[in-house]
Amino acid sequence: AQSVTQLGSHVSVSEGALVLLRCNYSSSVPPYLFWYVQYPNQGLQLLLKYTTGATLVKGINGFEAEFKKSETSFHLTKPSAHMSDAAEYFCAVSEPGANNLFFGTGTRLTVIP
Amino acid sequence: KAGVTQTPRYLIKTRGQQVTLSCSPISGHRSVSWYQQTPGQGLQFLFEYFSETQRNKGNFPGRFSGRQFSNSRSEMNVSTLELGDSALYLCASSLEQPLDYTFGSGTRLTVV
């Protein structure tokens, strides 16, 4: 069975500070991992994904995430927070060949000016 | 290119009624998936259609159903609405599998 745990339902950072959103997964097979962002009253937008290969994945808007198999983690980072980063972020996992995602419960990021 | 279009954006229904939501995928995308988003349960997978066939179904009661047409447009139907069905219903399309999901803006259903 697959599952995703996002530690911290709310994270606040100052503008210009490091953003770190945590995601741990459970999967019986090497997973595909995703980070999505959701702005109010909108759908989800893909930030980045890991399938195979390089474990450090770079995404849009300056975000990146590193797949660490030994820690079953896929934490999302951004060196310097911007006001426009305020949103809800979802980590998701899928098995190769599967046609659905399992989502974490989300982390709401607040950026303090 | 046009994104995933969901209609209507907002809907208010009375308990016991039924509702149909529509999703038009990105041109060329053959897979359409539906997710329910609520504050309590988060994002939960409803079902996925590919080339008019349901390939996968989540753990929802039979009141939730869907279909896909030959042009890849999809509809989902919820019968005998309950207050707990109030949610944001998101549709996502992809070429084949969720690696390339593009989500619509959702339909916010309120059951009163």
Structural write-up:
The complex is a heterodimer of chains A (113) and B (112). Chain A is mainly β and 113 residues long. Chain A has no helices and twelve strands. In chain A, strand 7 (56-58) and strand 8 form a beta hairpin. Chain B has 112 residues and is mainly beta. Chain B contains no helices and eleven strands. Chain B has strands at 5-7, 10-13, 19-24, 31-38, 42-50, 53-57, 64-68, 74-78, 87-94, 102-103, 107-111. In chain B, the strands form two sheets. In chain B, strands 2, 4, 5, 6, 9, 10 and 11 form a seven-stranded mixed β-sheet that branches. Chain B has a four-stranded antiparallel β-sheet with strand order 1-3-8-7, with no helix packed on it. The mean pLDDT of chain B is 94. Chain A binds chain B through residues 32, 36, 41-46, 49, 51, 90, 92, 94, 97-106, and chain B through 4, 31, 33, 35, 42-45, 48, 50, 55-56, 58, 90, 92, 96-99, 101-106, 108.
- What global shape of chain B is seen? globular
- Radius of gyration of chain A, taken over Cα atoms and rounded to an integer in Å: 13 Å
Beta strands of chain B, count: 11
Total number of helical segments of chain A?
0
SS content category of chain A: mainly beta
Q: Biggest sheet of chain A, open or closed, and with what strands and sense? A: 6 strands, mixed
Question: What string, H for helix and E for strand, traces the elements of chain B in order?
Answer: EEEEEEEEEEE
For the biggest sheet of chain B, the summary is: 7 strands, mixed
Query: What is the CA-CA span between the terminal residues of chain B?
Result: 37 Å
Classify the secondary structure makeup of chain B into a structural class: mainly beta
The global form of chain A is globular
| Rg of chain B (CA only) | 13 Å
Largest interface: A-B, 23 and 26 residues
> Helical residue percent of chain A?
under 10%
Note the quaternary state here: heterodimer
Distance between the termini of chain A: 41 Å
Average of the residue pLDDT scores of chain A: 94
